Amino acid sequence: MKRDAWVRADSVVRVARFCLCCMVFFSILVAPLSEGPLPPTVSAQEIQNEVKTDTVPSQMNLTIYGEPRRLYHRKGDDLVTSAGKDCIECHLRAFYPGRDFFKWEYRKKWDIHWMLFSVACFVMMTGIYGAVSIWRKGEGPSLHHPVHWASVGRALFWDVFLGKRIWRQSRLRWAIFFFISMAFVQLFFVFIAMVVTRYLFPAPFFMTGIGGTVLDCMADLLGLMILVGVLLALYRRYVLKEEHLESQAEDTSVLWMLLAIIVTGFFLEACRLAVVPLTPRMYASFVGALGAAVLKSWDVGWTGVRFYVWFIHAMLVFVFIAYLPFSKLFHVITCPVSILATASENAYRQYQ
Amino acid sequence: MSEKEDSREKPEHQVEEWSLGEEYTQVPSGKDLSDKEGGTAEEGAESPVPEMSTAPGFLEPAERPFIRVRINNLSPRQLLELEACTRCSECVLWCPVYAQDSRPGLTPRAKARSFRKILRAQDGVMATLFPPERRLGRMLRQPERQKRRIEEFVKDLYECSTCGQCHYKCPSYIDTVELWESIRKSIVSAGYGPLENHKALTSSVKSYDNPWLQPRSTRDKWAKRAHKQKEIRSVPKMLGKSKAEVLYFVGCTASFDVNIKEVAVNTVKMLDACGVDFGILGTQEKCCGSVLLRVGDPEYERLAEENIETFNRLGIRTLVTSCSGCYKTISQDYPKVGTMNFETLHMVQFIARLIEEGTIQFEKEVPMKVTYHDPCHLGRASGIYEAPRTILKSIPGIEFVEIERHHENSRCCGAGGGLKAGFPEIQQKMSQARVRDAVATGATDFVTACPFCYQGLSVGIIAEDAPIRMRDITEIIMMALGGSDKGSQ
Question: N or C: which end of chain A has fewer CB within 10 A?
Fold first, then answer.
């Protein structure tokens, strides 16, 4: 009993120690950001004056990635982007109260983001290195027969993707597995598509076109699937309290972390949508739009709230990334290997 | 009360087996092996054995320095599989040992976690930077902690019958049996294992080529005695001196156990009745090494190599055995050590094949209601489920009923994996649980295809005072072939 307590405490202390280090690092870097209050909300008259007295040229063309692009043009009194979006949606104080704040923020925010992300990746890679270095100490044969590719293929589909054995054992566990694992896999691809089409090789179709709307919708849908999966897992642990199910820190930490990441993610989206003018595309982000409808009913500076929640969300993600190889979620890598290896080996057994 | 009912309540031959089972499980570790050299197998088996304490013989926490557990004999896949455990608790629900001893540490889930922690503490990144043996490690009392952690783990590791149920329930398909055996090997190499009770068995195998502390010269005594008592027509020919197509590998249990020898006698009669050209190795036969392999003794490989060389030299086409433990070792584990030039079959496979070919037909009616226990080594380990059922269903008069938990869910009787030697009380509870399953079917006879399970379950029947009779499948086959009718009365 004493030993178990020590082991539990050890795990908690390890996670807590890491979180504390990250928070200290974060505080040192972010401290300068806390200077001054947010700009006050401006009146409607000031907005009109701002638009009318704007001295920007009637249109602006630039060459981006070797291609000529028109950034905006003037349409009556309004400036309209090449995608048909009003510039005031993003650039006027009334609709984006934290404009000045964000101007400053953009100088530091992403620097900090990438620094912390690098730290998280370093910790993650260290963990993976540690695990791999232990695996490499094994000198015995992993497989006693040549790889049986047909069995491996079948196992990949039925067991790795569809969780056949879990389906037979418990429908609830299968639902948890399916919602979380399938959503994670697809969300990974959506994330890759977003990074590639919006940052690396900007493609209007995926930014402001239908492709972008589909990606927004997919991101919300998959996030919702993970949320449902996590809630079901917590229900199984804390409400059903299934027999023999242990709920130590190492079993539950990942679940709580995932829950926090998803909730803060949706909250961020809701904050954003709550402060920009309503457009039809926003309904693609249906969870965020629903949240925005709720948030709008409170007279709060959601832009400012969003800024701080963004950091909390980012920190959670970074801690999650760093903690991955030390957590139970490491099985996303090891389980498929085990399943496929066993499938290949079993193909050679003399079954009758 | 009718004669039949009476005989079902108190099966006479099972009373003898009680003392025999105890003898096997509780070989005294300090026994002078040389005393046995001149004795007979029966004398050895029937000699009184002092009752051991209920506490299994764990390693004493000696004052020796901390020794790292070397993991080079494990494969990268096995080390990776330790991380593949999702702690879903499915193995805990099905573990037959945990059902009898609810100690959280012995579950497969806990064992994977404990060994993972041991490895991280001695081979992880932090351990690489600050090795336990260096000054900082010593200041943090890492060696003491690690040694205590390993010693606790050893106790959990050996409280397992390596039945493989967890492998068949694990959603990650972790090959647990092979994993535990490999870890046991590492633990033994580092000097933390095996348990004291196992040491007597392993030293006997190394000294006498059998775990029964019996001299080699008495290995074929069962055949000579059976011939003398006119149970068999002649002593089977000794391969090595003469040639035959089939080698009947008798195994240690059937060779030395006075009650289990019926399995060997029935098998010989059956092969004779089927006109098979077969022979045995007699005194040249050695233990298959299953005992050494299961408890992690590295000497297993030497024994396996010697056996493979012997078998290959015989020029046989088929090796047949009635023991599921021997079958699993020879067919599944020997190919990892060397190449064999013959086919290995369990007796049930061999007979099922003869039935399929039409070589034998069961003509005599055997009126009994039977249920069948799938031995772990034959079922889950080797995938042989249908051959024994085919045989039983093809015998006229037999009413076959399935027991609760059969095929790949078969509840282990606890006789294997060194559990019976290390934790006899747990094994007895397990066998009793299995006997209760059998009684619930309403069967009159409980059949299995493994002498070791037979032995363990017989003890369970007596402990439960269950109205059911234990049978080896060879006995039923011989009854159907008209060779024995003692059980059908």
Answer: N
User: What's the CA gap between B188 and B195, in Å, rounded?
Assistant: 9
Q: What is the pLDDT of residues B242-299, one digit of tens each?
A: 889 999 999 999 999 888 889 999 999 999 988 899 999 999 999 999 999 999 999 9
Three-state SS letters, A61-105? EEEECCEEEEEEEEECCEEEECCCCECHHHHCCCCCCCHHHHHHH
Look up tokens 């056949």; give the residue: A164
Q: Pick from A134, A245, A338: which is nearest to B119 by CB?
A: A134
Residue of B75, B152, B332 with shortest CB distance to A142: B75
* Cβ-nearest to A134 among B75, B81, B124: B124
Contacts of A197 (CB under 8 A, 6+ apart): A203, A205, A206, A207, A211, A215
Burial class (CB in 10 A: 0-12, 13-18, 19+), A338: buried
Q: Which residues of A touch B102 (CB under 8 A)?
A: none
In contact, B392 and B400? CB cutoff 8 Å: yes
* B450 close to B323: Cβ distance less than 8 angstroms: yes
Nearest chain B residue to A145, by CA? B336
Are B410 and B385 within 8 A, CB to CB?
A: no
Check residue B472 and report its DSSP letter: E
The gap from C-alpha A232 to its chain's centroid, in whole angstroms, comes to 20
- Contact assignment for B173 to A159 by CB distance below 8 Å: yes
The pLDDT value given to residue B477: 93
Token pair 């000294």 in the structure block, residue = B207
Which bin fits B209, alpha (ψ -120 to 50), beta or left (φ > 0)?
A: left
Taking CB atoms and an 8 Å limit, are A334 and B172 in contact across chains?
Answer: yes
> ipTM for the complex?
0.79
Query: Which residue type sits at A166?
Result: I
Distance of residue B226 Cα from the nearest chain A Cα, in angstroms: 34
Given a cut of 60, whether residue A313 has pLDDT beyond it is yes
d(CA A216, CA A250): 33
**Residues in chain A, how many?**
352
> What does the block give as tokens for B106?
């012995």
Q: Among A13, A180, A334, pick the best mutation site for testing chain B contact (most B Cβ within 10 A).
A: A334
Under an 8 A CB cutoff, do B76 and A331 touch?
no
**Looking at chain B, which residue has its C-alpha nearest residue A144?**
B336
> How many residues does this entry show for chain B?
489
Q: Could you report the per-residue pLDDT of B338-359, keeping only the tens digit for each?
A: 999 999 999 999 999 999 988 8
Q: 3-class DSSP state for residue B443?
A: coil
Average pLDDT over residues B411-440: 94
Give the per-residue pLDDT at B441. Answer: 95
Give dist(CA A123, CA A22) in Å, integer. Answer: 11
Q: What is the 3-state secondary structure (H, E, C) of B81-119?
A: HHHHCCCCCHHHHHCCCCCCCCCHHHCHHHHHHHHHHHH
Closest to A138 (Cβ–Cβ): which among B78, B90, B336?
A: B78
pLDDT, position A232: 96
What is the predicted pLDDT for the residue at B12? 38
Decide if A331 and B83 are in contact by the 8 Å CB cutoff.
yes
- Note whether A343 contacts B173, CB cutoff 8 Å: yes
pLDDT at position A280 is 78
Residue A135, pLDDT above cutoff 70: yes
Q: Which residues of B431-447 are buried (b: 16+ CB within 10 A; e: fewer)?
A: bbbbbebbbebebbbbb
Contact A191, A259 (CB under 8 A): no
CA–CA separation, A200 and B395 (whole Å): 74
Question: Which residues, listed in sequence order, are joined to residue A68 by a DSSP beta bridge?
Answer: A63
Name which residue leads in pLDDT, A266 or A98.
Answer: A266
CB B87 to CB A246 under 8 A?
A: yes
Contact A141 B123 (CB under 8 A): no
